[in-house]
Amino acid sequence: MRTERLYNEDPYLTEFRTKVIEVLPYGDKYGVILDRTAFYPIGGGQPSDMGYINNERVSKVIEKDGELLHIIDKQLTAKEVKGTVDWSRRFDFMQQHTGQHILSSCFEKLLNGSTDSFHMGKDIVSIEINIDSFSIDDAERIENMANNIIYSNLPVITRVVSSEELNSLPLRKVPKVTENIRIVEVKGIDYSPCGGTHVRATGEVGIIKIKYWEKCKGGIRFTFVCGSRALKDYGMYNSIIRALCEKFSVRDSEITEAVDKIMLDLRNAEKQLSAATQELIRVEADSIIKECPAVSGIRLISRVFDKRSINDVKILAQYLTKAPGTVVLMACRNENAQVIFTCSEDVNIDMNSIFKTVLPIIEGKGGGNAKTAQGGGNRIDRLEDFMNSAEKLVLS
Known about the structure:
This protein is of the alpha+beta class and 396 residues long. It has helices at 6-9, 87-111, 136-151, 163-168, 227-248, 255-291, 310-320, 351-358, 383-395, and strands spanning 4-5, 15-26, 29-34, 36-37, 51-53, 56-58, 60-64, 67-72, 80-85, 115-120, 125-129, 156-161, 181-186, 190-193, 208-216, 219-226, 299-306, 326-333, 337-343, 364-368, 372-377. A hairpin with a 3-residue loop joins strand 20 and strand 21 (372-377). The longest helix is centred in the C-terminal third of the chain and has 37 residues, at 255-291.
């Protein structure tokens, strides 16, 4: 390990001068090893810093075989360079990471839930907690406790401890390493081994808000935001609420009531539309029956509809087959071909057999029983051939 890690001593350091030890090829890019660095590498659930070495963009920093590689696009020839860390990205990660320690501590204290994993993304942070259930009341308790810790502006202390001191600390989790163990302490609240970057005091986290949670293998995954991310998140929801208030001409406290009313009106309208549709289909069925007299004891009704709901066609077929001696062959020409073959109870024709026989014409799939078969196919251009072939089989 040839690089002095300045971020361990001062996570607020964003500019530094250093010497270049080595430049290595890294795919189609280059990995720069520096004498010392303020760039934090990917690790411990935290993404790496970004920034610049001189004028070259540092896209990420990784640790490989004990060395820190600063990944840049172009070859670097300078021997002494200036490093500049993207502070907005760094401070965002500091807020989120310290917020995670606070939140994990609250889960352990209130629900006896240990943190199994931690992931920090560009927009959200998630942790997996080893608990079986979680409620809105639990969320309120956890958030209140976490934010009270933030409001108390407690010192956040990072230090490397001896094995003797380590054994005396009430650690939230067991360290993964056995030497140079770095402890992050939220004063009197939480003690956790961690190599990440953190704020100096809990007040800098700003606020913690749990966005949602979901079951996962071994527990529950929580997604949350802290600090500037929480402010951005609040701004987004506030914009949504303002837009809804304008649409419904109500105050924000009346939105739920307004939505409930609209949903009730919509359900009632859907019921009325369904009843009207059913009546129109019944009238249509009566008209078709009158137009199609039975021939040799069979009334064959064959129709192809353009851009019509297959569900409406199924209802139409049900009405039609109430008439004795009726065979119904119907198809809808939508994005693909949708088809239903059915007949009255007194008709002794195997509809499924006919359906299966002609189905390859439209390269279709489906099936059913002797009275009703349905399915669909991709070859809309062959729908007329399909229907004509089915009609011949019914009449044969």
